[in-house]
Design a protein that fits this description.
It is a single chain. This protein has 14 helices and 13 strands. The protein is an alpha/beta fold. The strands form three sheets. Strands 1, 2, 3, 4, 5, 6, 7 and 11 form an eight-stranded parallel sheet that branches. β1, α3 and β2 form a beta-alpha-beta unit. α3 packs across α10 and α5 runs parallel beside α7. The chain is globular and about 55 Å long.
Length: 373
């Protein structure tokens, strides 16, 4: 509508001039419509977001990481197989490829990402592409490019096309000067990793786009997420995943954090369910756009003791990685999530005992099936 108004004005003032041509107006209109500046800057409006009564069409970026495949499975059960598109820059395993739509998507290629959104009528965008804490410290340039430049592409495209967009944050968004036990929703955030810095940037940019442009931005600060089906992705809390696989296979484990390192954790089923419930929550129920969520906090020692109730022969030694330990020492010990429980009814289901039983059962069963085949 705004472009047409400008064209009409141009016709009125330039239509009788010797240099006027339809081609020049069309060219100008194309240049205007492809500009990175948002229509709301000029008093226009964005496409309306999907309503809560219709099934969203969902794109998941970074879909082959720890959470993407599981979330796609949950969302497909909820909204239909063909309404959830998983994407990544890597070739998927056969079981992922055959379980629903999968496409190549590079978040650093804004044109490609925009075409995917338009061609598939996307209404929700789940942005899981990220370089995690330990990997990011070894490649800061890559972390900046993926976690910050990629985020900017996501926010611009989501705003231009009226999407509901989810960007996860992390306990790594806090730092040594933040209160640690518990860590509230609003407090000092001075992280000392590029991963944490980029996530604070994501929180603030998303909330700015919400207030400035009306973007339906939603963000959850995830604790350490524990899952049996996916490999760790280079995070500081990875020990709590690796220990299960190694314990079942060898009966031994070497932990790279101190035995008394207390960190917030969550089983993956709770994490994925929280994400879906948060995305479905009515916008007017959300008093914030960024929420803490948590389920439990434990130390490596706590976890080992619980595992030894099932695997009494488990032997654990400690070889502390000073880089990882320094990161963990600056993170929350207990994450306060009162607001999420109040505003949209968040409630975890897995505590430490249930987590251990579920993980060991799942891994043992999977190993037995693999051996049988």
């Amino acid at each position: 509508m705004l472009v047409m108004q400008l064209l009409r004005g141009a016709v009125k003032h330039a239509g009788s001039g010797p240099q006027f041509s339809v081609e020049r107006l069309i060219s100008a209109a194309r240049g205007f419509s492809s500009s990175s500046q948002h229509l709301s800057d000029f008093g226009g409006t964005h496409p309306p977001p999907c309503t809560d009564t219709e099934h969203p069409k969902i794109l998941i970026t970074g879909g082959l990481g720890q959470l993407g495949v599981g979330l796609a499975k949950l969302l497909r059960r909820r909204f239909g197989k063909n309404n959830v598109i998983l994407s990544d820059i890597r070739k998927p395993p056969n079981h992922v490829y055959h379980n629903g739509p999968f496409i190549f998507s590079d978040i650093l290629d804004s044109k490609n990402l925009r075409e995917i959104v338009v061609n598939n009528n996307i209404s929700w965008l789940i942005h899981y592409s990220a370089v995690l804490s330990a990997v990011g410290e070894n490649n800061v340039a890559l972390a900046k490019e993926v976690n910050i430049t990629g985020l900017h592409n996501i926010l611009d495209i989501a705003t231009d096309h009226g999407l509901r967009v989810f960007v996860p944050s992390t306990i790594g968004a806090f730092g040594p000067s933040s209160p640690r036990d518990p860590t509230p929703e609003l407090c000092v955030q001075r992280p000392r990793t590029i991963y944490g810095v980029s996530k604070v940037h994501a929180e603030l940019m998303g909330e700015y786009y919400h207030h400035r442009y009306g973007l339906d931005f939603r963000c959850l600060r995830y604790p350490g997420v524990i899952s049996a089906n996916s490999n760790p992705g280079g995070g500081t809390t990875d020990y709590a995943v690796q220990i299960f696989h190694t314990a079942v296979k060898t009966g031994c484990f070497e932990c790279n954090l101190r035995s008394d390192t207390l960190l917030p954790m969550m089983y993956i089923d709770d994490c994925l369910r929280a994400t879906l419930e948060f995305m479905e929550a009515p916008a007017d129920s959300l008093l914030s756009r960024t929420y803490n969520i948590s389920a439990m906090s434990f130390t490596p020692h706590d976890l080992v003791q619980e595992m030894q109730k099932v695997l009494p022969e488990l032997k654990v030694t400690y070889n502390v990685d000073p880089v990882l330990q320094a990161i963990a020492d600056g993170w929350p010990m207990v994450l306060e999530d009162i607001a999420a429980r109040r505003d949209w009814g968040w409630k975890h289901e897995f505590d430490l005992s249930e987590l251990v039983q579920t993980m060991l059962t799942h891994i043992t069963t999977s190993n037995q099936r693999a051996q049988a085949n």
